[in-house]
Structures are given as C-alpha cells and as structure tokens.
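Input record (one chain):
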Amino acid sequence: MENKPSDRLSSDHSLNCGAAVIPTSGSLSARPASPAAERADQPSVGQTLPLLRLSGWNSEKQYDKHNPVCIHYDFQWKISQREKIRARRVFSDTDPDLVLAPSDFWKVKFHPRLDNYLKDEDKFPEDKYTCEETIIEVSVEKSRRRGLTKRCQKLEIDWQQVDEHLEGLSDLFSMGRKITLSMEFVYKEVACDSATAKGKKKKKSATEAQRLQRAAEAGLWTRVYEQYRCRAKHCKQGPHCWPDERGIHQKLLPGQLEEIVGHIKETMKEGETEEDPTPHNQKYIGKQSQAEGRWLH
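The corresponding structure, as predicted from the sequence alone:
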C-alpha cells in the first residue's frame, strides 16, 4: 500500500508517554514539506468544523468531504507481532474518509474487529497474545505543524487527547489538507510453563467470552443510537429525541443515552445478552423526565 506524502510535526508538538519508539518494519516514511506548502500553512480565517461524535452520527448518511459538515480523516492501522527487538507486521490496512471521532470509532467499530484479527490461527498460532504497546501518530498532508506522536502501554489510549487533537486541526482540514491517524498495535506471545498449560482451555474460553461481550456491547450502543435517532423533518431537538405522552419531542443528550444503555443492561432477564433486548425504554425515559428536570427542555 502506498502512502501519500505526509509529515510528522516538529518535536515541540510531539507527545510521548514512554521511551523512544522501537523501529518496526513497514514504518511510514516522512518527507519535508515544500516552502510553498509551509507558507500556505500559516493560520488563516476559515470555517471551523466539528469532530462528529456518535450521538450525531448517521451510519446511513454519505458524508461529502468536498462539502463537509465535519472533520474527515484517514485511519491507517497496523497489527504487529514482537519478535525479539523488532516487530513484524501481521495485518495492515487503511479505512479512508472517516468522520466518526476516533474514540467512538474504536468503541463501536475497530475494537471488535481487532479481536477478530487475533483469532486468525495462521497469523497468531499460539494460545495467547497480549498487546505490549500502541503507537499513535497524527499527521497532516504537506504540513509541519500541530502533529501528535504518542506511545502508550498496552491498549491504555487517551482517546480524549486524540479527539481533541483532531478537533484542533479543523482549520487545516478546511484548507484542503488531508489528516491521517496512524495506529500500530504491537502484540507479543504470552509464554506459559507446564503448570499454566493445564489452564489454557479455560483462559482461552474467558478471552473469547470477553471478545463476545465487547462485540455485543458495541452492537447495543449502535441499536440504541438508531432507535432514538429523530427522523422528523421539522424537529429541532435532534439528532436524538423521544416523543412524550403528548407527542412533543424531547431532546436526548449523550449522557442520557448512556443511562438508557445502562438501564437495558440492568434490566436484562436471566440468560439474555446485549444482543437480545430491543432498545425501547419509553416508560423508563418518561419516569426519568418526571424525576429530573434535566431531561426536559
């Protein structure tokens, strides 16, 4: 896969939560921006576009980057396996032209996919692997300013920092600069002795259960957002709301949607999973709206 020229930004804007990044095979190459690009990179008055969050995202909508209503970015990702010092690339791909904030894309889309890749016995033949580190880089096409380089232990990613950094690149995106979020997930085999080998099957079952749980929760979130997405042409309470007993649309905030998800989990019947219940909690929302004024507008 050929990457278009992009620059890591100066060290003044580089963030690192560990030691220097260990070189890996297939790393992206950087090339200095031209003087003309540097001059064009100076701050200018332009349109400020938001970073789209899950509460305002419509999965069925085609977002036009040539007539944007939010920030667009490319997501380049790589899964590597540590072998002694260097890491060998196992999987890599690019998700182009994303609009959903990285933290939300991770929660509902990529994290379940990552778990599925780890189940490939041809690529990961041993019983157990663990993520050793995650390397994050944000770059802007033909630009040297406002970059982000971050190295995190395991999957302990500060998603708020990543989201806020992309939001800060709104003016560059409005100027036509392509934004790229690159992430590398470095895994290593977990060695086990003869004593722990007896529990391999049990541990593998627990890992599989955790993977299924995360995938089910992601599906529940998606169904809740779709259930309460307002489709009325003249409603100004959206993107999510619910009609009360008088038929008046009441706005739903992200925190309230989280409470709905929590309520569904708490009231699931024995034997049910997140994949089973229908996210229809009109009675619950009505009770909350009467008890808490913040539910009403």
